[in-house]
Design a protein that fits this description.
mainly beta, 6-stranded antiparallel beta sheet
Length: 123
């Protein structure tokens, strides 16, 4: 949080499975730990990671003809801290999202990056 304050990320996971695939998402609350042992939420419900797989092959012939029989996507959060002289660091949330369409090779994976800068304890 700053040079003298610590925080932890409490990560919660949600998921579901279905025939030929599934989906998982993780969200984080970033909690500042105070000197007296209490804590405060600096950020709530931040997308932390996700993954999804959907089956695209449905017969033995499909599997025989195709090496990659699922639509897949996943994302992961990276953090950078910005010390701009304020009481707390600003957080730069960098989410990389990947998409891999079925029936394509690995070189077809699409990567998108989303960046957002936020200051703790803001509504």
């Amino acid at each position: 949080m700053s040079k003298t304050k610590q925080a932890v990320a409490l990560v919660s996971k949600w998921g579901t499975a279905y025939a030929g695939g599934g989906r998982e998402k993780e969200y984080a609350d970033f909690m500042m730990i105070n000197n007296d042992g209490s804590y405060e939420a600096a950020f709530k419900n931040i997308h932390f990671s996700s993954r999804e797989m959907i089956m695209a092959c449905f017969s033995e012939d499909d599997y025989a003809k195709n090496l990659h029989c699922h639509d897949e996507g996943w994302s992961i959060l990276n953090l950078k801290f910005i010390d701009d002289g304020k009481e707390y660091y600003s957080y730069k949330f960098i989410t990389k999202s990947y998409g891999w369409p079925s029936f394509t090779d690995e070189s077809s994976i699409n990567v998108e990056t989303n960046e957002n800068i936020a200051y703790p304890f803001q509504p």
